[in-house]
């Protein structure tokens, strides 16, 4: 009986340490993204800036496509992924002085904002929607 209690305590302690370590890792990553860079703004500050500056450029089609593209991301992380992708799309649109968010800017921004493993989903989604993505093949890494 004493060994069972000791094993439960050891197991519970191990579980808590592992869960706190995982939580700490994600908190530390968020902390690093909030740290100001040489220009005085953090990564998150720039993301918020680009999104705020481009709000008038997003039409319903662009918003719907963005929501569809972030669907495979787990619900817990979807808002963070959506902000990162939308910020990259907005940055490209603003730097190119676009009047609105176009499909070309959306595809390129998504490719540049996401890791390689997400490019397969983009290609699949574009094929389903019959959207030609040949001019972006040099950016896509499958």
From TrEMBL:
This is DUF2621 family protein. The chain crosses the membrane at residues 6-28. It comes from the Bacteria. The keyword Transmembrane helix applies. Keywords: Membrane, Transmembrane, Transmembrane helix. InterPro entries: YneK. The keyword Membrane applies.
